[in-house]
Amino acid sequence: MDGNQSAISVLTRLVDGLCGYPITPSTPIAEQFARAASMGQKNLFGTEVMYFQPSDELSAIASVEAMASQGGRYVDNTSSQGLLLKTKNLFSVAGKRLPVVMSVMAREVNKGSLSIHAGHTDFYAVRNAGWAQLMSCDNQEMHDLLPIAFKVAELRQVMLPVMVIGDGFIKSHAIENLPEPPDAFLGQFVGPPNRVHQPDFEHGTLSGTFTDTDLTMEGQVAQDLAYRFFKRGFVAAMSAMNKILGTNLKVVECYRTEDADMVVVILGSAAGVVKDVVDYYRDVKGWKVGVTRPVLFTPPCYEEIAEGVRGAKAVTVLERAAIAHNQPLLRDVQVALQLSPPENGQMPAVFHGVYGLGSKDFNKHDAAAVVENMKAHLGGEGDRSLQEFYVGIEGPYTLRPVELPGYEERELGMTFVG
User: Fold this and answer.
1) Are 89 and 58 spatial neighbours (Cβ–Cβ below 8 Å)?
2) SS3 breakdown of the chain: % helix, strand, coil, rounded to 5?
3) If 0-12 CB within 10 Å is exposed, 13-18 middle and 19+ buried, where does residue 223 land?
4) How would you classify the pairing of strands 296-298 and 132-135?
5) Nearest to residue 33, comparing CAs of 21, 46, 45, 25?
6) Mean pLDDT on 123-129
7) Other C-beta atoms within 10 Å of 113: how many?
8) Residue 50 above 90 pLDDT?
9) Using only C-alpha atoms, what is the Rg of the chain?
């Protein structure tokens, strides 16, 4: 199944309803959920699912906010400009402590032109809205992270919203073989909706009203205290799923970083090709290279990121967002190194690269160029390395693709055209 189908497989079994406004490349989620609702499909808990499509994306998140305020488990889905249009209400959903889950197929935000293809600028732009952000690398992980999101969002210690994100088109429309967790597992692991917001009509309540200087900060601090529990909740839920289903979920994946001199830090689907190139350099050239991939992007997992990079001599942070958009992943790595510095006191050299905007091809030769750039610096050839660079295009400050003699292809690559 493709990335959208992997999300639908979980959503139709767990939620009471979806309020959304279709937007490429996450439109199939809304379409398929609407079809399920029109056919009277029931979730695992016997509730007939409902679908509501208002006039735009802002109206959709406002509808989700209203429904979640009455109890129940309601979701939204979106991409790109749709996510940005929701910004105003993203803050109020979190501020009201509503455990809403939103699936996001990450897409470039319209800037000087319209692109419907992959980019991380959309969820970067709303990182400070108070939602947790889980970034998947493939459709299987997207499928597994959705139950985790519901489980943690509805913990009484948390009661905060979560985004589960995949790369638009690259994964949303890519077909992969993946096992689905059985109904019995989802029913027991996630359970019925946390109805802490279920209204008591005998004793009415009012939310979202004006607060003056005496209560505004207190309300935000209460949200902050719950926000601090997010990471512990995700670690515990992932550990439980790993033991039951044999998955290998972590808040930060560290691939062959134990002895690595060079580490690449990256989000999402592009980590796959980087891992293949890491294996090549280790097996063919004996270079000690590793990959650190945050899965829980927000709140940042500084301690786990530091564990993956602080033993290295050179670290490259790759981001699918332009330098103009503040490089939050680079900032996370820099903070992690400051909070948990290397034991020998020697900070690694940190490089930053931009790749894959608008689904620009990022292949093994580009990933090899990133590794070779770090190696040139460590070999004393600083004039041959770039501190900040682009890959996948031609022009200034770009790394040229590197050939990989003897590289063994492991999979068939397919590109979506449409």
Assistant:
1) yes
2) 40, 15, 45
3) middle
4) antiparallel
5) 21
6) 97
7) 7
8) yes
9) 22
